[in-house]
Amino acid sequence: MTATPSSPDCLFGLLRTRVCTVLKEVLPEIDDAIVARVEVTPTRDPAHGDMATNAALLAAKPARRKPRDIAEELVEKLAQCPEISEVSAAGPGFVNMTLKPAILQNVARTVLTRGEHIYGRSTLGEGKRVNIEYVSANPTGPMHVGHCRGAVVGDALANLLGAAGYQTTKEYYVNDAGTQVVALTWATYWRYLQAIGTEIDAETFAEFTPNGLQYQGAYLIPVGEALAKEHGRALATDEGGVAPQDVWFETVRRVALEHMMAAIKEDLSALGIHHELFSSEAEVLKSGQVDEAIATLDRKGLLYEGVLEPPKGKKLEDWEARPQTLFRSTEFGDDTDRALKKSDGTNTYFANDVGYHARKASRSDMLIDVLGADHGGYVSRMRAAVSALTEGKTGFEAVLCQIVRVVKDGEPVRMSKRAGTFVTLRDLLDEVGRDAVRFTMLTRKADAQMEFDLNAVVAQTRDNPVFYVNYAHARCRSVLRLGAEKYGADAVSEAALAQVDLSSIHAEEELAVLRRIAGLPRQIEAAALAREPHRIATYCIDLASDFHALWNKGREETSLRFIQEDDQPASMARLALVAAIAATLRAGLAILGVEAVEEMR
User: Fold this and answer.
1) Beta-carbon neighbour count of residue 309 at 10 Å?
2) I need a surface site. Which of 149, 200, 230, 564 has the fewest CB within 10 A?
3) Domain with CATH 3.30.1360.70 in the chain
4) In whole angstroms, what is the distance from residue 487 CA to residue 269 CA?
């Protein structure tokens, strides 16, 4: 996906405006739809300039002219632009442009003037309301490492879309109405009986339950103890045995859910995640919104009674060999129609989800669900339902997250002291810390499988991106502290450095860093359009790499050192560059939800 850059800080947007203006001068009759597709992007090879445009290639066919001829005319006019020092036609009709050093130098001034909280932000989203639902882990136990990736991706995506001008809502759907909550309630009741002194083992207790004793982790012991403290023996028989369900079930269910959600929120908070909205499945079902959504589809003529073809080679949720109420989802791009009501008249799981998404759609322009990769088949059916319910006015997208494999000392880590069977989020946070978890989870595209190496993410080497980026920012802050000692703290404030003469910043290594800084506004917009927050992590790694290269070059060439003992103006210019690098790193890390460190410890 591409769009016209909407950030006032975006040099690519500025040059695109220049190119489009010139294109209309060269071809006055060109259609606006062609102009809208013009792109200005970084050149693949820096030797060819700073930016390139496809304008001539796009215009050639409708203009019935050779693209190279159009490119040559564009070159002639673009050469007069105040920002461009060199421009040339290349290949079949590309136009390469090199910016004047002063334009790149001014990027540092822009960063320092606008600040890390504003630089790079855009109006691309035009305030459109985007609901991002993520995590939504079943409230039946501790959050595990599988939930962690979706949590971090969803949170960073919300931050990213906010930076790109969208109005975002972070939502968590509490699945508190299914069979798993029934199982949780029974398991909690078992722990309650133990807490009041009843000796009953798992095997014996399982005989009382409808589907066995599913949750036997020690994490439910404190919940049982809390129930015993509040209710004493009132929820059991006089002998301390299993009482009739109407005596205890709703009380135990409520307390168990409260404790589980409190634990989940605590884990999420430790990860730096705070949802704005928690929606209850039970409340959605009670509200009648599911039936209302089904009735809406019926009024639109999108429901019928029928029998679906049996699934081939895979299990289809809610399939029956009897007539059901079906939704014509194939009319909206799905690969098969979907059941909303079973043959006995009860709603399917999909119907409940449709009702919930109808609720979200009523207050949103776009819905984004962050899901596990195993939910891939869910996407087309929900997109169809949302499109049908809103007549295409509200979009639906899903970001799928692949599994994470945790390893330590080269061996898979599978066991948890808390849960007994899986690695919990808290285990991970205790081992390596919040920022290392968040950054590492965002170093790869969400749908790529990931190996989370507990040794690697705390290693102080350049191969560890968490360390590499943190080290770059810490080095920047160290340089600025030295500058403050030499010239005074006021002289190296961002406001003061924004006013210094930057003309002495002209070495290629310095300009390379400025080009990278100039790319952040474009990266934010591109990443937002692609729904890929990992691009910002990659950007931070690249900027850190450019900075470290400049640092190392300064060790070899004294003229590139940040503080020039006998040349204060040059020192101030380079301190401004360093301050701009640090601010840009903080801007990128803030989108990822990662705190930039002041110094390495």
Assistant:
1) 9
2) 230
3) 11-99
4) 41
User: Domain 129-176+273-401: what homologous superfamily?
Assistant: HUPs (3.40.50.620)
Tell me what percent of the chain is helix, strand and coil, each rounded to the nearest 5.
50, 15, 35
pLDDT tens-digit map of 9-19: 899 999 999 99
**pLDDT averaged over the chain?**
95
Residue 147 contacts residue 108 (beta carbons within 8 Å): no
d(CA 268, CA 237): 38
d(CA 363, CA 437): 32
**Residue 528 structure tokens:** 């937002």
Q: What is the pLDDT of residues 23-59, one digit of tens each?
A: 999 999 999 999 999 999 999 998 999 999 999 999 9
Q: Could you count the other beta carbons within 10 Å of the beta carbon of residue 50? A: 26
- Helix, strand or coil, per DSSP, at residue 62: helix
Contact 377, 316 (CB under 8 A): no
Q: What is the pLDDT of residues 213-258, one digit of tens each?
A: 999 989 999 999 999 999 999 999 999 999 999 999 999 999 999 9
Nearest to 329 by CA among 356, 300, 352, 349: 300
Strand partners, 41: 52
- What is the CATH code for 11-99? 3.30.1360.70
Asked if pLDDT for residue 314 goes beyond 80, the answer is no
| CATH 1.20.1730.10 applies to domain 465-592 | no
DSSP letters of 110-124?
HHHHH-TTTTT---T
**Which residues of the chain does CATH 3.40.50.620 include?**
129-176+273-401
Buried b (16+ CB within 10 A) or exposed e, 131-160: bbbbbbbebbbbbbbbbbbbbbbbbbbbbb
The predicted-structure confidence for 538-578, as pLDDT tens digits, reads as follows 999 999 999 999 999 999 999 899 999 999 999 999 999 99
Cα separation, 134 vs 241, in Å, equals: 40
Q: Tell whether the model's pLDDT for residue 6 goes beyond 80.
A: no
CA distance 545 to 469: 8
Quote the Cα angle for 587-8-159, to 5°.
35
CA proximity to 360, closest of 351, 369, 373: 369
d(CA 290, CA 359): 9
Q: Is the distance from CB of 275 to CB of 133 less than 8 angstroms?
A: no
Beta strands in 83-203 (DSSP E): 84-90, 94-99, 129-133, 167-174
Q: Which two tokens stand for residue 460?
A: 């102080």
Residues pairing with 408 in the sheet:
411
What pTM value is reported for the model?
0.94
Phi-psi region of 488 (alpha: psi -120 to 50; beta: other; left: phi over 0): left
Name residue 82's amino acid.
Answer: P
Task: Find the farthest-apart pair of alpha carbons in the chain and give their distance in angstroms, rounded.
Answer: 96
